[in-house]
């Protein structure tokens, strides 16, 4: 199957204030966007892809002249792939607060003339969806064929059905949850503490000091990465294999292959990801809870989405966003007599399975998007 080939991002500037759930506003901001495929004549074949924590607008394709620049979901999106760009117009948007081109903590605060740093306003999943809706509107699309996302992106896809139910027909939410468990919030907090206690963090204003809190970012990434993998996948890949085969001379040495792997992942992450962005995005994860304003009743929360169609996918070894959490969403939808399909894939890879090439998973996705492509579009 072919790639979408070379792609280029575009910047969309918005002068209209974006009101945020916190009560703050984001002024004079830009969003980075990529699109793939062709928008059809009646503008009915658009699919918005929402990104997870450390991803971006770069969903598919490659950048000319850049090695290893494949989009983070390139195995799923492209000509002849499950989300077929010969049939769909696919949109990737980098959310505000990110560090991959959209306005975020590293950008200049118009109120001070200095980088936002820790002063960048708190953002939520709802705020991101509001920003994405403005991109979709600017592209001249009144209704999306589908909104798709995995993990935190799945939360955004669900939020679209609650916030803009008339502006999409299908929701595809993969490896996600209706809110974070206390354990998940705890993992996020430990990662945040690793960052904010790094001496180079400087209260979030480290840009002015010409430093980066790399030690904290490394630990945060190591903690997060552990939660993305299953015990089975770590055992199969690393087991208890030691680097040198014997007991070392220091407790600070790297002894096991899994230690080496995690440190490598942490080192890579600290070179490209912004610490303030990490704090913002993990907080947005923590805050998401659509049932909260309905007294904890998820069924009531999804009443507004009764005429939408849903696909939920989970993976058996995903202990961070377990199948139980997807089933909670499915039950709320069934209680509302919503058209919902659910696939629980027996895969060994843990949470990261939603990014991988499992043929059963991709078969489910392909069949569902074929269904969307073949269904008649009813216009008002």
Strand and helix map with partners:
Elements: E1 10-14, E2 18-19, E3 25-26, E4 29-36, E5 46-50, E6 77-78, E7 83-84, E8 89-93, H1 125-138, E9 144-150, H2 152-163, E10 168-174, H3 182-196, H4 214-228, H5 231-237, H6 257-272, H7 275-287, H8 298-301, E11 309-315, H9 323-335, E12 339-345, H10 359-374
Parallel strand pairs: 5-8, 5-9, 6-7, 9-10, 10-11, 11-12
Antiparallel strand pairs: 1-4, 2-3, 4-8
Helix pairs in contact: 1-2, 3-4, 3-7, 4-6
Catalytic activity: L-homoserine + succinyl-CoA = O-succinyl-L-homoserine + CoA
Keywords: Acyltransferase, Amino-acid biosynthesis, Cytoplasm, Methionine biosynthesis, Transferase
Function: Transfers a succinyl group from succinyl-CoA to L-homoserine, forming succinyl-L-homoserine.
Concise account of the structure shown:
GO terms for molecular function: homoserine O-acetyltransferase activity. This protein has 380 residues and is of the alpha/beta class.
